[in-house]
Amino acid sequence: MKSCSSVQRKAMLRCHLSNLALHGSKLEARKGQIQMAKLCFSLLLLLQLQLCMQLIDSRSTVKFLPGFQGPLSFELETGYVGVGESEDAQLFYYFVKSEKNPKEDPLLLWLTGGPGCSAFSALVYEIGPINFNILEYNGSLPTLHLNPYSWTKEASILFVDSPVGTGFSYARTPLASQTGDFKQVHQVDQFLRKWLMDHPEFLSNTFYVGGDSYSGITVPPLVQQISNGMATMSFGYGHAENEEGIKPLINLQGYILGNPKTDKIVDKNSQIPFAHGMGLISNELYESLKITCGGDYANIDPSNVDCLNDNQAFSELISGLDQNHILEPHCPFFSPKPRDSNGKRRSLNDNEKSQEFLDPEPALPSIGCRSFGYMLSQNWENDYNVRKALQIRQGSKGKWQRCNYDLPYTEEIGSSFSYHVSLSTKGYRTLIYSGDHDMVVPFLGTEAWIKSLNYSIIDDWRPWILHSQVAGEEDTSLPSTGLQNVMLCFKDG
Protein backbone atom coordinates (compact mmCIF):
# COMPACT_ATOMS: atom_id res chain seq x y z
CA MET A 1 0.00 0.00 0.00
CA LYS A 2 1.45 3.32 -1.03
CA SER A 3 1.95 5.95 1.63
CA CYS A 4 0.06 9.21 1.28
CA SER A 5 1.90 12.26 0.08
CA SER A 6 2.09 15.34 2.29
CA VAL A 7 -0.35 17.08 -0.01
CA GLN A 8 -2.82 14.22 0.32
CA ARG A 9 -2.38 14.11 4.07
CA LYS A 10 -3.06 17.85 4.30
CA ALA A 11 -6.15 17.48 2.11
CA MET A 12 -7.43 14.62 4.25
CA LEU A 13 -6.75 16.65 7.40
CA ARG A 14 -8.66 19.61 6.04
CA CYS A 15 -11.55 17.34 5.08
CA HIS A 16 -11.60 15.75 8.53
CA LEU A 17 -11.46 19.12 10.27
CA SER A 18 -14.26 20.36 8.00
CA ASN A 19 -16.41 17.36 8.93
CA LEU A 20 -15.74 17.99 12.61
CA ALA A 21 -16.70 21.65 12.22
CA LEU A 22 -19.88 20.70 10.35
CA HIS A 23 -20.76 18.13 13.00
CA GLY A 24 -20.11 20.71 15.69
CA SER A 25 -22.37 23.26 14.03
CA LYS A 26 -25.09 20.63 13.76
CA LEU A 27 -24.70 19.86 17.45
CA GLU A 28 -24.93 23.57 18.27
CA ALA A 29 -28.02 23.90 16.09
CA ARG A 30 -29.53 20.85 17.76
CA LYS A 31 -28.80 22.32 21.18
CA GLY A 32 -30.44 25.55 20.09
CA GLN A 33 -33.52 23.68 18.92
CA ILE A 34 -33.73 21.81 22.21
CA GLN A 35 -33.35 25.02 24.19
CA MET A 36 -36.04 26.71 22.08
CA ALA A 37 -38.35 23.72 22.55
CA LYS A 38 -37.75 23.86 26.31
CA LEU A 39 -38.48 27.59 26.33
CA CYS A 40 -41.70 27.16 24.31
CA PHE A 41 -42.80 24.31 26.59
CA SER A 42 -42.08 26.41 29.67
CA LEU A 43 -44.05 29.35 28.28
CA LEU A 44 -46.95 27.08 27.33
CA LEU A 45 -46.89 25.48 30.77
CA LEU A 46 -46.82 28.92 32.38
CA LEU A 47 -49.81 30.09 30.32
CA GLN A 48 -51.74 26.91 31.14
CA LEU A 49 -50.84 27.31 34.81
CA GLN A 50 -52.01 30.93 34.81
CA LEU A 51 -55.29 29.90 33.15
CA CYS A 52 -55.79 27.06 35.60
CA MET A 53 -55.02 29.32 38.54
CA GLN A 54 -57.54 31.85 37.23
CA LEU A 55 -60.21 29.15 36.97
CA ILE A 56 -59.29 27.55 40.29
CA ASP A 57 -59.13 30.87 42.09
CA SER A 58 -62.56 31.73 40.72
CA ARG A 59 -64.17 33.12 43.87
CA SER A 60 -63.53 36.31 45.77
CA THR A 61 -64.69 37.82 49.05
CA VAL A 62 -66.10 41.30 48.55
CA LYS A 63 -65.89 43.58 51.59
CA PHE A 64 -66.51 46.95 49.96
CA LEU A 65 -68.81 47.99 47.12
CA PRO A 66 -68.58 51.29 45.25
CA GLY A 67 -71.63 53.37 46.09
CA PHE A 68 -72.07 51.76 49.51
CA GLN A 69 -70.80 53.71 52.50
CA GLY A 70 -68.31 51.77 54.62
CA PRO A 71 -67.62 48.03 54.74
CA LEU A 72 -70.45 45.61 53.96
CA SER A 73 -72.34 44.40 57.02
CA PHE A 74 -72.99 41.05 55.34
CA GLU A 75 -70.69 38.45 53.76
CA LEU A 76 -70.61 38.64 49.95
CA GLU A 77 -68.74 36.28 47.65
CA THR A 78 -68.61 36.45 43.86
CA GLY A 79 -67.14 34.01 41.39
CA TYR A 80 -67.41 31.76 38.38
CA VAL A 81 -68.11 28.05 37.96
CA GLY A 82 -67.31 26.36 34.66
CA VAL A 83 -69.99 24.04 33.27
CA GLY A 84 -70.69 22.21 30.05
CA GLU A 85 -68.27 20.73 27.56
CA SER A 86 -64.70 21.62 28.62
CA GLU A 87 -66.24 24.16 31.02
CA ASP A 88 -66.69 26.54 28.11
CA ALA A 89 -69.73 28.07 29.82
CA GLN A 90 -68.67 30.18 32.80
CA LEU A 91 -71.59 30.95 35.13
CA PHE A 92 -71.17 33.96 37.40
CA TYR A 93 -72.71 34.12 40.88
CA TYR A 94 -73.23 36.38 43.89
CA PHE A 95 -73.34 34.49 47.18
CA VAL A 96 -74.62 36.15 50.35
CA LYS A 97 -74.30 34.27 53.62
CA SER A 98 -77.18 34.26 56.06
CA GLU A 99 -76.91 37.13 58.50
CA LYS A 100 -78.38 34.93 61.21
CA ASN A 101 -76.70 31.51 61.39
CA PRO A 102 -75.15 30.39 58.08
CA LYS A 103 -74.10 27.04 59.54
CA GLU A 104 -77.70 26.00 60.13
CA ASP A 105 -79.92 28.31 58.06
CA PRO A 106 -81.27 27.12 54.69
CA LEU A 107 -79.31 27.55 51.47
CA LEU A 108 -81.36 28.96 48.57
CA LEU A 109 -80.27 28.99 44.92
CA TRP A 110 -82.10 31.77 43.04
CA LEU A 111 -82.72 32.16 39.30
CA THR A 112 -84.27 35.30 37.81
CA GLY A 113 -86.61 34.96 34.83
CA GLY A 114 -86.40 36.31 31.31
CA PRO A 115 -84.90 34.09 30.13
CA GLY A 116 -81.82 36.24 30.20
CA CYS A 117 -82.30 38.48 33.26
CA SER A 118 -79.42 38.74 35.72
CA ALA A 119 -79.81 37.39 39.25
CA PHE A 120 -78.45 40.76 40.37
CA SER A 121 -81.99 41.99 39.74
CA ALA A 122 -83.26 39.76 42.56
CA LEU A 123 -80.32 40.70 44.78
CA VAL A 124 -80.78 44.47 44.54
CA TYR A 125 -84.52 44.92 43.79
CA GLU A 126 -86.24 42.00 45.47
CA ILE A 127 -84.85 39.67 48.14
CA GLY A 128 -81.19 40.66 48.60
CA PRO A 129 -79.46 42.73 51.31
CA ILE A 130 -78.97 45.97 49.34
CA ASN A 131 -81.15 48.38 47.35
CA PHE A 132 -80.38 51.37 45.20
CA ASN A 133 -81.14 54.82 46.51
CA ILE A 134 -83.78 56.09 44.09
CA LEU A 135 -82.54 59.62 43.51
CA GLU A 136 -82.56 61.85 40.45
CA TYR A 137 -79.70 60.62 38.27
CA ASN A 138 -76.94 63.18 37.66
CA GLY A 139 -74.38 60.98 35.92
CA SER A 140 -72.49 59.97 39.06
CA LEU A 141 -72.27 56.43 40.39
CA PRO A 142 -75.61 55.26 41.86
CA THR A 143 -75.54 54.69 45.62
CA LEU A 144 -76.76 51.78 47.75
CA HIS A 145 -78.35 51.22 51.15
CA LEU A 146 -79.22 48.16 53.25
CA ASN A 147 -82.52 46.36 52.72
CA PRO A 148 -84.12 45.66 56.12
CA TYR A 149 -86.42 43.03 54.56
CA SER A 150 -83.72 40.93 52.92
CA TRP A 151 -84.28 37.18 52.85
CA THR A 152 -80.63 36.85 53.84
CA LYS A 153 -81.76 37.65 57.37
CA GLU A 154 -82.89 34.01 57.50
CA ALA A 155 -81.11 32.17 54.68
CA SER A 156 -77.92 32.05 52.63
CA ILE A 157 -78.69 32.84 48.99
CA LEU A 158 -76.78 31.88 45.86
CA PHE A 159 -77.80 34.26 43.06
CA VAL A 160 -76.78 32.70 39.71
CA ASP A 161 -76.56 34.45 36.34
CA SER A 162 -78.15 31.75 34.19
CA PRO A 163 -78.44 30.83 31.36
CA VAL A 164 -74.96 31.48 29.96
CA GLY A 165 -74.78 34.96 28.47
CA THR A 166 -76.91 36.41 31.27
CA GLY A 167 -75.41 39.12 33.47
CA PHE A 168 -71.68 38.45 33.84
CA SER A 169 -71.88 34.80 32.75
CA TYR A 170 -70.15 34.16 29.44
CA ALA A 171 -69.26 31.50 26.89
CA ARG A 172 -65.72 30.86 25.69
CA THR A 173 -66.87 29.41 22.35
CA PRO A 174 -69.80 30.14 20.00
CA LEU A 175 -71.11 26.62 20.54
CA ALA A 176 -71.15 27.08 24.31
CA SER A 177 -73.30 30.20 23.93
CA GLN A 178 -76.15 28.17 22.43
CA THR A 179 -78.61 27.35 25.19
CA GLY A 180 -82.22 26.54 26.02
CA ASP A 181 -84.52 25.25 28.76
CA PHE A 182 -83.04 21.76 29.09
CA LYS A 183 -79.43 22.86 28.70
CA GLN A 184 -79.93 25.54 31.35
CA VAL A 185 -81.40 22.98 33.75
CA HIS A 186 -78.47 20.62 33.20
CA GLN A 187 -75.86 23.36 33.59
CA VAL A 188 -77.36 24.83 36.77
CA ASP A 189 -77.47 21.34 38.28
CA GLN A 190 -73.80 20.92 37.36
CA PHE A 191 -73.05 24.39 38.72
CA LEU A 192 -74.67 23.57 42.06
CA ARG A 193 -72.77 20.32 42.54
CA LYS A 194 -69.43 21.91 41.72
CA TRP A 195 -70.16 24.88 43.96
CA LEU A 196 -71.09 22.63 46.89
CA MET A 197 -67.95 20.54 46.42
CA ASP A 198 -66.01 23.80 46.72
CA HIS A 199 -68.13 24.88 49.72
CA PRO A 200 -68.55 21.62 51.68
CA GLU A 201 -69.58 23.53 54.82
CA PHE A 202 -73.04 23.97 53.24
CA LEU A 203 -73.62 20.34 52.28
CA SER A 204 -75.66 19.60 55.40
CA ASN A 205 -77.84 22.73 55.17
CA THR A 206 -81.41 22.32 54.01
CA PHE A 207 -81.51 23.33 50.36
CA TYR A 208 -84.17 25.05 48.25
CA VAL A 209 -84.36 26.35 44.68
CA GLY A 210 -86.18 29.61 43.97
CA GLY A 211 -87.05 31.85 41.06
CA ASP A 212 -89.68 34.05 39.51
CA SER A 213 -91.36 34.83 36.19
CA TYR A 214 -89.90 32.60 33.43
CA SER A 215 -88.04 30.58 36.07
CA GLY A 216 -91.42 28.95 36.71
CA ILE A 217 -90.64 26.99 33.57
CA THR A 218 -87.08 25.92 34.46
CA VAL A 219 -87.05 25.61 38.26
CA PRO A 220 -89.41 22.57 38.52
CA PRO A 221 -87.37 20.46 36.03
CA LEU A 222 -84.20 21.63 37.77
CA VAL A 223 -85.53 20.42 41.12
CA GLN A 224 -86.51 17.17 39.42
CA GLN A 225 -82.99 16.70 38.05
CA ILE A 226 -81.41 17.47 41.42
CA SER A 227 -83.80 14.99 43.03
CA ASN A 228 -83.03 12.30 40.45
CA GLY A 229 -79.31 12.77 41.03
CA MET A 230 -79.29 12.25 44.78
CA ALA A 231 -80.68 10.06 47.54
CA THR A 232 -83.15 11.96 49.70
CA MET A 233 -82.08 11.51 53.30
CA SER A 234 -85.58 12.01 54.71
CA PHE A 235 -86.95 9.13 52.63
CA GLY A 236 -84.58 6.59 54.12
CA TYR A 237 -82.80 5.39 50.99
CA GLY A 238 -79.69 5.15 53.13
CA HIS A 239 -77.05 5.78 50.46
CA ALA A 240 -74.57 8.61 50.12
CA GLU A 241 -75.12 8.62 46.37
CA ASN A 242 -77.81 7.45 43.99
CA GLU A 243 -77.67 4.55 41.53
CA GLU A 244 -76.03 6.78 38.94
CA GLY A 245 -73.31 7.70 41.43
CA ILE A 246 -73.84 11.46 41.21
CA LYS A 247 -72.28 13.40 44.05
CA PRO A 248 -72.50 15.27 46.33
CA LEU A 249 -75.54 14.45 48.39
CA ILE A 250 -77.83 17.50 48.45
CA ASN A 251 -80.26 18.07 51.29
CA LEU A 252 -83.07 19.12 48.93
CA GLN A 253 -86.28 20.13 50.69
CA GLY A 254 -88.36 22.02 48.14
CA TYR A 255 -88.70 25.08 45.95
CA ILE A 256 -90.13 28.60 45.86
CA LEU A 257 -91.70 30.39 42.88
CA GLY A 258 -92.96 33.94 42.52
CA ASN A 259 -95.42 34.94 39.77
CA PRO A 260 -94.27 31.82 37.93
CA LYS A 261 -94.88 31.22 34.27
CA THR A 262 -96.12 27.63 34.27
CA ASP A 263 -98.22 26.80 31.22
CA LYS A 264 -98.34 29.03 28.14
CA ILE A 265 -102.01 28.29 27.45
CA VAL A 266 -103.22 28.53 31.06
CA ASP A 267 -101.28 31.75 31.69
CA LYS A 268 -102.48 33.37 28.45
CA ASN A 269 -106.10 32.34 28.91
CA SER A 270 -106.19 33.86 32.39
CA GLN A 271 -105.31 37.37 31.19
CA ILE A 272 -108.79 38.30 29.92
CA PRO A 273 -110.67 37.06 33.04
CA PHE A 274 -108.07 38.94 35.12
CA ALA A 275 -108.60 42.16 33.14
CA HIS A 276 -112.36 41.83 33.56
CA GLY A 277 -112.08 41.19 37.28
CA MET A 278 -109.91 44.29 37.65
CA GLY A 279 -112.45 46.41 35.78
CA LEU A 280 -110.15 47.02 32.81
CA ILE A 281 -112.69 45.87 30.20
CA SER A 282 -116.46 46.05 30.06
CA ASN A 283 -118.86 43.24 30.90
CA GLU A 284 -120.10 43.36 27.30
CA LEU A 285 -116.66 42.82 25.77
CA TYR A 286 -115.85 40.10 28.29
CA GLU A 287 -119.06 38.18 27.54
CA SER A 288 -118.49 38.59 23.80
CA LEU A 289 -114.91 37.28 24.11
CA LYS A 290 -116.10 34.23 26.00
CA ILE A 291 -118.65 33.48 23.27
CA THR A 292 -116.63 34.27 20.15
CA CYS A 293 -113.37 32.70 21.37
CA GLY A 294 -114.86 29.93 23.48
CA GLY A 295 -112.54 30.79 26.36
CA ASP A 296 -109.42 29.99 24.28
CA TYR A 297 -107.41 33.17 23.78
CA ALA A 298 -104.03 31.48 23.38
CA ASN A 299 -104.71 29.68 20.10
CA ILE A 300 -107.14 31.78 18.09
CA ASP A 301 -108.34 30.34 14.79
CA PRO A 302 -107.27 32.80 12.05
CA SER A 303 -110.65 32.30 10.36
CA ASN A 304 -112.55 33.29 13.52
CA VAL A 305 -113.03 36.95 12.61
CA ASP A 306 -115.31 37.77 15.54
CA CYS A 307 -112.80 36.43 18.06
CA LEU A 308 -109.95 38.29 16.36
CA ASN A 309 -111.92 41.55 16.43
CA ASP A 310 -112.81 41.16 20.11
CA ASN A 311 -109.22 40.28 20.96
CA GLN A 312 -108.01 43.37 19.08
CA ALA A 313 -110.42 45.53 21.08
CA PHE A 314 -109.06 43.97 24.27
CA SER A 315 -105.45 44.67 23.23
CA GLU A 316 -106.20 48.32 22.51
CA LEU A 317 -107.86 48.79 25.90
CA ILE A 318 -104.83 47.49 27.82
CA SER A 319 -102.10 48.92 25.54
CA GLY A 320 -101.47 51.89 27.83
CA LEU A 321 -100.88 49.76 30.93
CA ASP A 322 -97.73 48.43 32.52
CA GLN A 323 -98.81 44.81 32.42
CA ASN A 324 -96.18 43.74 34.94
CA HIS A 325 -97.98 45.92 37.49
CA ILE A 326 -101.19 47.47 36.25
CA LEU A 327 -101.20 50.24 38.90
CA GLU A 328 -97.74 51.55 38.05
CA PRO A 329 -96.90 54.13 35.36
CA HIS A 330 -96.33 52.85 31.84
CA CYS A 331 -92.66 53.68 31.28
CA PRO A 332 -89.86 52.87 28.82
CA PHE A 333 -88.66 49.31 29.27
CA PHE A 334 -84.94 50.23 29.41
CA SER A 335 -83.70 46.87 28.18
CA PRO A 336 -83.56 45.28 24.77
CA LYS A 337 -87.09 44.15 24.00
CA PRO A 338 -88.08 40.50 24.46
CA ARG A 339 -88.41 38.44 21.30
CA ASP A 340 -91.26 36.34 20.04
CA SER A 341 -90.87 32.72 18.95
CA ASN A 342 -89.74 33.90 15.50
CA GLY A 343 -86.90 35.93 16.96
CA LYS A 344 -88.64 39.29 16.47
CA ARG A 345 -88.73 41.88 19.19
CA ARG A 346 -91.90 41.90 21.25
CA SER A 347 -93.19 43.41 24.44
CA LEU A 348 -94.39 41.32 27.35
CA ASN A 349 -97.80 41.56 25.71
CA ASP A 350 -97.46 40.34 22.12
CA ASN A 351 -100.17 42.68 20.84
CA GLU A 352 -98.95 45.85 22.53
CA LYS A 353 -98.42 48.66 20.03
CA SER A 354 -97.47 51.58 22.24
CA GLN A 355 -95.18 54.31 20.97
CA GLU A 356 -92.41 53.00 23.21
CA PHE A 357 -91.94 49.96 21.00
CA LEU A 358 -92.31 51.88 17.75
CA ASP A 359 -89.60 54.33 18.78
CA PRO A 360 -86.13 52.78 18.23
CA GLU A 361 -84.70 55.06 20.94
CA PRO A 362 -87.41 55.59 23.56
CA ALA A 363 -87.02 58.26 26.22
CA LEU A 364 -85.23 57.34 29.43
CA PRO A 365 -87.53 56.43 32.33
CA SER A 366 -88.32 59.08 34.90
CA ILE A 367 -87.72 58.74 38.63
CA GLY A 368 -91.31 57.58 39.29
CA CYS A 369 -90.87 54.50 37.10
CA ARG A 370 -89.76 51.05 38.23
CA SER A 371 -87.52 50.95 35.16
CA PHE A 372 -85.68 54.03 36.50
CA GLY A 373 -84.21 51.74 39.16
CA TYR A 374 -83.29 49.25 36.43
CA MET A 375 -81.40 52.03 34.66
CA LEU A 376 -79.38 52.63 37.85
CA SER A 377 -78.24 49.00 37.92
CA GLN A 378 -76.95 49.21 34.36
CA ASN A 379 -74.98 52.37 35.14
CA TRP A 380 -73.63 50.81 38.35
CA GLU A 381 -72.63 47.39 36.98
CA ASN A 382 -70.81 48.93 33.99
CA ASP A 383 -68.59 51.09 36.19
CA TYR A 384 -64.92 50.09 36.11
CA ASN A 385 -64.47 50.17 39.89
CA VAL A 386 -67.63 48.11 40.43
CA ARG A 387 -66.39 45.42 38.08
CA LYS A 388 -63.03 45.46 39.82
CA ALA A 389 -64.70 45.08 43.23
CA LEU A 390 -66.83 42.18 41.95
CA GLN A 391 -63.71 40.58 40.40
CA ILE A 392 -65.17 40.41 36.91
CA ARG A 393 -62.73 38.81 34.48
CA GLN A 394 -61.35 41.41 32.12
CA GLY A 395 -62.49 41.00 28.54
CA SER A 396 -65.08 38.35 29.41
CA LYS A 397 -68.08 40.65 29.04
CA GLY A 398 -68.91 43.81 27.15
CA LYS A 399 -71.76 45.99 28.30
CA TRP A 400 -73.71 44.51 31.22
CA GLN A 401 -77.50 44.42 30.77
CA ARG A 402 -80.06 43.63 33.44
CA CYS A 403 -81.96 41.57 30.85
CA ASN A 404 -80.36 40.20 27.71
CA TYR A 405 -83.06 39.05 25.31
CA ASP A 406 -80.59 38.52 22.45
CA LEU A 407 -79.44 35.17 23.83
CA PRO A 408 -79.47 32.25 21.37
CA TYR A 409 -82.03 30.55 23.61
CA THR A 410 -84.56 27.85 22.71
CA GLU A 411 -87.77 27.71 24.75
CA GLU A 412 -88.42 23.97 24.80
CA ILE A 413 -90.78 23.45 27.75
CA GLY A 414 -94.32 24.60 27.03
CA SER A 415 -95.58 23.62 30.46
CA SER A 416 -93.88 22.77 33.76
CA PHE A 417 -97.09 21.45 35.31
CA SER A 418 -96.12 17.77 35.00
CA TYR A 419 -92.96 18.46 37.02
CA HIS A 420 -95.06 19.90 39.84
CA VAL A 421 -97.14 16.73 39.81
CA SER A 422 -94.05 14.51 39.90
CA LEU A 423 -92.33 16.48 42.65
CA SER A 424 -95.44 16.50 44.83
CA THR A 425 -95.35 12.70 44.98
CA LYS A 426 -91.84 12.92 46.41
CA GLY A 427 -92.93 15.16 49.26
CA TYR A 428 -91.05 18.33 48.45
CA ARG A 429 -92.43 21.49 50.01
CA THR A 430 -93.52 24.25 47.66
CA LEU A 431 -94.26 27.93 48.17
CA ILE A 432 -96.03 29.71 45.32
CA TYR A 433 -96.68 33.43 45.68
CA SER A 434 -98.20 35.94 43.27
CA GLY A 435 -98.69 39.68 43.08
CA ASP A 436 -102.34 40.42 42.43
CA HIS A 437 -101.64 43.24 39.95
CA ASP A 438 -99.50 41.21 37.54
CA MET A 439 -101.28 40.73 34.19
CA VAL A 440 -98.36 38.99 32.45
CA VAL A 441 -98.70 35.93 34.70
CA PRO A 442 -102.08 36.52 36.39
CA PHE A 443 -102.76 34.93 39.75
CA LEU A 444 -105.96 33.42 38.31
CA GLY A 445 -103.91 31.10 36.09
CA THR A 446 -101.59 30.19 38.95
CA GLU A 447 -104.54 29.44 41.20
CA ALA A 448 -106.15 27.33 38.45
CA TRP A 449 -103.20 24.97 37.95
CA ILE A 450 -102.64 24.61 41.70
CA LYS A 451 -106.30 23.67 42.17
CA SER A 452 -106.02 21.11 39.37
CA LEU A 453 -103.50 19.21 41.53
CA ASN A 454 -106.55 18.22 43.64
CA TYR A 455 -104.88 18.72 47.00
CA SER A 456 -106.83 18.70 50.21
CA ILE A 457 -107.22 22.15 51.76
CA ILE A 458 -105.63 22.24 55.21
CA ASP A 459 -106.02 25.95 55.88
CA ASP A 460 -108.59 27.70 53.72
CA TRP A 461 -108.34 31.30 52.50
CA ARG A 462 -107.34 33.55 55.34
CA PRO A 463 -105.79 37.00 55.72
CA TRP A 464 -102.03 37.25 55.55
CA ILE A 465 -101.08 39.73 58.28
CA LEU A 466 -97.99 41.93 58.17
CA HIS A 467 -97.39 44.64 60.80
CA SER A 468 -100.96 44.18 62.06
CA GLN A 469 -102.34 44.90 58.57
CA VAL A 470 -103.87 42.63 55.93
CA ALA A 471 -101.20 42.31 53.22
CA GLY A 472 -102.82 39.53 51.20
CA GLU A 473 -104.54 36.16 51.34
CA GLU A 474 -103.12 32.67 51.65
CA ASP A 475 -104.08 29.04 51.91
CA THR A 476 -102.25 25.78 52.58
CA SER A 477 -103.03 22.46 50.93
CA LEU A 478 -101.67 18.92 50.93
CA PRO A 479 -101.90 16.03 48.45
CA SER A 480 -103.21 12.66 49.55
CA THR A 481 -99.63 11.51 50.27
CA GLY A 482 -99.47 14.06 53.06
CA LEU A 483 -95.95 15.05 52.03
CA GLN A 484 -96.53 18.22 50.01
CA ASN A 485 -97.11 21.70 51.35
CA VAL A 486 -98.34 24.24 48.83
CA MET A 487 -98.96 27.77 50.06
CA LEU A 488 -100.55 30.32 47.78
CA CYS A 489 -100.01 33.94 48.78
CA PHE A 490 -101.37 37.00 47.07
CA LYS A 491 -99.87 40.35 47.80
CA ASP A 492 -99.90 43.67 46.04
CA GLY A 493 -96.76 43.92 43.88
Question: SSE layout and pairings?
Answer:
Blueprint: H1 6-56, E1 59-62, E2 76-83, E3 89-96, E4 107-111, H2 120-125, E5 130-132, E6 144-146, E7 156-160, E8 170-171, H3 174-177, E9 179-180, H4 181-198, E10 207-212, H5 215-228, E11 252-258, H6 264-269, H7 271-277, H8 283-293, H9 305-318, H10 355-358, H11 370-381, H12 384-390, E12 409-410, H13 417-425, E13 429-435, H14 443-451, E14 456-466, E15 469-478, E16 486-491
Parallel strand pairs: 4-7, 4-10, 9-12, 10-11, 11-13, 13-16
Antiparallel strand pairs: 1-2, 2-3, 3-7, 3-8, 5-6, 14-15, 15-16
Helix pairs in contact: 4-5, 5-13, 8-9
Family: Belongs to the peptidase S10 family.
Pfam families: Peptidase_S10
Biased composition (Basic and acidic residues): 337-356
- What best-fitting shape do the alpha-carbon axes yield? globular
Question: Structural class of the secondary elements?
Answer: alpha/beta
Structure summary, number of beta strands: 16
What's the level 1 CATH class of the largest domain? Alpha Beta
- Write down the overall mean pLDDT: 82
Number of domains: 3
Rg calc: 30 Å
Biggest beta-sheet profile: 12 strands, mixed
Instruction: Name the helicity range.
Output: 25-40%
Total helical segments: 14
Name of the CATH homologous superfamily of the largest domain: Alpha/Beta hydrolase fold, catalytic domain
Strand content: 15-25%
Q: Fill in the CATH topology of the largest domain.
A: Rossmann fold
Order of helices and strands: HEEEEHEEEEHEHEHEHHHHHHHEHEHEEE
